[in-house]
TrEMBL record:
MF terms in GO: metal ion binding; transferase activity
Name this polypeptide is given: FAD:protein FMN transferase
Transmembrane segments: none
Top EC group: transferase
Reactions it catalyzes: L-threonyl-[protein] + FAD = FMN-L-threonyl-[protein] + AMP + H(+)
The enzyme's E.C. designation: 2.7.1.180
Length: 298
């Protein structure tokens, strides 16, 4: 095994894989980045957001189809159609290029949130059509989805028995029964100290963290905004949860669940998660700094 460190999708990447597997995984993730970036005018995301039926790659169609499945499963609590809200709030520039952006105060949302976003996926023609006013932003979801697919390919197709792919702290790790366990540190978002260490089980495990601190900025009026938008309001999440970490078997699911915990808060979120995935383990940090966790995580 050898560690490779790089940057992709606006975040730090760490691969713990046999050296010969570094280049294929990195190229896959860079392809995902080019396909889904909101900030690249030639990406599938930008072309779809420009309107009309748009022919897209099979990669884009597959990821959006999966994201829509989670949209339905969560009753709209997770949405891949918040691009317009993020742009309105000032997140219309790549953090990696400009650092922390400064935005004008956000104008009011033009209308009340729709009951459900309207999108048409034509798998035969490979086209996507959005209803007016919608904009796709697959963001952290596609990061988790693509890392999960890369890990699955390494383990199942390439026969790599032990490895880890970590994209900005959201990761998939796998090992055989009896293999040395992976131990993953979780940082406190409000203090310069670790919360603790997760020991991942044998097989494949995924860990995702969603935080209102990671990507935040101030508008010119001094209001602190962040990138976790509540689909029910179109505004940054205002619950008492500053950060949520979820461990489960699939990184796309962990990304969705961690975001939903931040939206729902430290009291409502955990029972909701138990209804979605009873085996998921979680850690939340309140805006008051208090750490809570599932019994299996403690």
């Amino acid at each position: 095994m050898k560690v490779l460190r790089d940057r992709v999708m606006g975040t730090d990447l760490m691969l713990v894989l046999p050296p010969r597997r570094h280049a294929p995984v990195l190229e896959w993730l860079r392809t995902v980045e080019r396909t889904f970036s909101r900030f690249d005018p030639g990406s599938d995301t930008s072309r779809v957001n420009a309107g009309g039926p748009v022919v897209v790659s099979e990669l884009f169609l597959a990821a959006l189809h999966e994201a829509c499945r989670y949209l339905d499963a969560t009753g709209g609590l997770f949405s891949p159609f918040l691009g317009a809200e993020l742009a309105r709030l000032g997140y219309d520039t790549d953090f990696a290029l400009v650092g922390t952006p400064e935005a004008a105060p956000a104008p009011p949302r033009a209308a009340a949130p729709a009951a459900a976003p309207v999108v048409h996926l034509d798998h035969d023609r490979r086209t996507v059509t959005l209803s007016p006013g919608l904009a796709v932003d697959l963001g952290g979801f596609v990061k988790g989805w693509s890392v999960q697919r890369a890990a699955q390919a390494q383990r199942e197709s390439e026969g790599v028995p032990y490895g880890m792919i970590d994209a900005g702290g959201d990761l998939v790790a796998w090992r055989p029964e009896g293999g040395r366990p992976w131990r993953i540190g979780v940082e406190h978002p409000l203090r310069e100290q670790p919360i603790g260490v997760l020991e991942l089980p044998a097989g494949t495990a995924a860990v995702a963290t969603s935080s209102v601190v990671r990507r935040s900025w101030r508008d010119r009026a001094g209001t602190v905004l962040h990138h976790i938008v509540d689909p029910r309001t179109g505004e940054p999440a205002g619950s008492d949860c500053a950060q949520a970490t979820v461990m489960t078997g699939d990184l796309a699911a962990a990304e969705v669940y961690a975001t939903c915990l931040v939206l729902l808060g430290t009291r409502e979120g955990p029972p909701w998660l138990a209804g979605q995935d009873p085996d998921a383990r979680w850690i939340t940090v309140g805006r008051d700094g208090r750490v809570r966790s599932s019994a299996a995580t403690a």
